[in-house]
Amino acid sequence: xxxxxxxxxxxxxxxxxxxxxxxxxxxxxxxxxxxxxxxxxxxxxxxxxxxxxxxxxxxxxxxxxxxxxxxxxxxxxxxxxxxxxxxxxxxxxxxxxxxxxxxxxxxxxxxxxxxxxxxxxxxxxxxxxxxxxxxxxxxxxxxxxxxxxxxxxxxxxxxxxxxxxxxxxxxxxxxxxxxxxxxxxxxxxxxxxxxxxxxxxxxxxxxxxxxxxxxxxx
Length: 218
Hints:
218 residues; 13 strands; 28% strand; globular
């Protein structure tokens, strides 16, 4: 059994799974990332212990999916824009101390690419692109039958490519793909286009609900 932790800027989840990709249990909580590292880390650890307790101690490893930039092999988090205050956090080391288990840390886009390649739509392929569209906008790449991380573990970070001269400012860069297509960006775009309808800081779910209801503005 593997304890999986998926840490995002909006929500975080803990799962129990097997090396064959079978999910036995899943629980999630709001990350409340604006609080900074320690409060969010404490809540994520508590959630992990709660889920792990369901096995009666039969966990073999902890595997973490989290947004970049990060040093994958050392498991150090390098100031991801969706997790303010997570500056050079030795996450792998801290979780190993907390759970007394081997810990593996991977970029969330890469983790998604590996999952689809091994267990999902990408089985049997040698080349695959996985799009990660959530609080941010990233990707994971399987090239010629191998996960490709790039020289500095940031391969696939397409969200920071500029696609327009202007647009919703996503982490200080107006006009980026992330500014237009991520969950955060779409909410900012709604405010930019229709400030009288959606105030600054509107939650994406409100815009999505109106789009599903047929709103042309949404």
